Task: structure prediction
Amino acid sequence: MRKQFIKTIENILGQDEGLVLLLGDIGVWGFSNAFEKYPDRVYNVGILEQSMVSMASGLAMTDHIPVLHTIAPFLAERATEQLKNDFCYQKLGGNFVTVGASYDYASLGCTHHCPADVGILKQMPGMEIVLPGTPVEFDKLFRQTYSNGHPTYFRLSERSNKVSHNARFGKASIIKKGKLATAIAVGSMLDPVLTAAGDLDMTILYYSTLEPFDHKTLKKNTQSKRVVLCEPYYSGALTADVMKTFLGRAVELYHIGMPKKFITEYGKAEKHDELLNLSPAKLRKRIKNICQKKS
Amino acid sequence: MNKRNHTKKLKKRIVKTAFQAGEGHIPSAFSILDILWVLYDKILKITPGKYGHPERNRFILSKGHASLGLYAVLGEKGFFSSQELEKFAQYGSFLGGHPDRNKVPGIEASTGSLGHGLPISVGIALGLKIKKIKRAKVYTIIGDGECNEGTIWESLLLASHHQLNNLHCIVDFNHSTDRALGLKNLKRKFLSFGWDTRVIDGHNHKQIFSALKRESKKPIAVIANTIKGAGSRLMENNPAWHHRSPTKEELKQILKELDQHEKTIYKNN
Result:
């Protein structure tokens, strides 16, 4: 997905003179072409994420469209207040593209994990949140939103789904329809959820935009009144959105995602999945159990 | 009206406003009022009509809590009616304890949390360079307390690395931070970060003017020695007054002091 990010940005740099790319000393090598071609609009700012965000808001004030890039925790967690004050509160447009997601850097430890980012950014009025499931989806979603005058967070992951879906900003896709339950699969959770669901008679909705949340598609496709919320980060960041969808009506809501704890093991991300009951076998078991529950 | 009377008039307006509102950082506003006045009267050349022009000079109040000083000056310069000050910090007013760019005419950046305005100014200065707008300059006022924030030093590195000589950073050095984290020789620190640095008396209009008019190949720092609460003996350098509004008796005393004391402060002018 990072490769697509580089491709997309290089392309837009050529088309839109307003675009300015700021790197937090991350992914610099990949952008060597862009550095050469657009030296006055591509910067390796350095390792100072807070100032980088404030500085980007200054660029937005001079009618530029800033794109910032670094590893998720250094932006969403370290520079949280800058995102809140200098973009959301001041109503300025900017794009924040991060890599690493929850634990793509499994072997680097908790300082480089960022399972809290979506939950944190959900608390910022005006912040749009996008989790593309494939490189193609990133390209489409970025082009649709980058110049819309709002701050937008793009959470890229090394985990990709096999098939791209019709990626429309703010719209969920209906992957399949069924009677027993409705699963909300967020970003890279789609493939694992699809595999786990197998031939179970259930609805699967795919969400790549988390803010604004598409209430309509969920409401229309939950005849079972049973929702399984499948998130690839700290579980529950979308709970309030789901509950608001069914305001005043009873639904069963089940959570599948990361539990709120530090993963102090290293190794491969797949091992972490197992540890967190998110391996394909465990997922299958959990989703099957939910579908077979008597209401 | 001569310049002395202007700042005196504005200081009186500030104290009355804070009294009415029961809110405000008066000493901080007094500390930077002379600098603000010189900026808006002589340097910035921003008028309400020109505001919004892409080639305008910009001013960012990084130490947003001194908003009363800026509001008083903007009101005097016609960005809004000075009567609006009567509603300062009240429900429904557009003049809050910290300035909001989406509400107040003439405010470039919403500030309040310290350490944001300077990096924002760095971004504006870089943005102007990218657009090849040479005429416009960016001025910001930070406090010495604000210099505790890491983003200030990050920004000093950034501005000097990108040779942002269209950026002027004025430090309101009123020794707020002496009780916490003293800055010692601030000039040496700025110099070592690659800024063209000058130290001035922050209440001397002539010195302020000539420092802000300077051109350089480097970003320009002006360390302005100021007195927190300048003009009122009751408040001067008294931390208890940092965020406090006067009683009726205190208001009377401060107004009286402003009439008498201005002469002492400005004796060197």
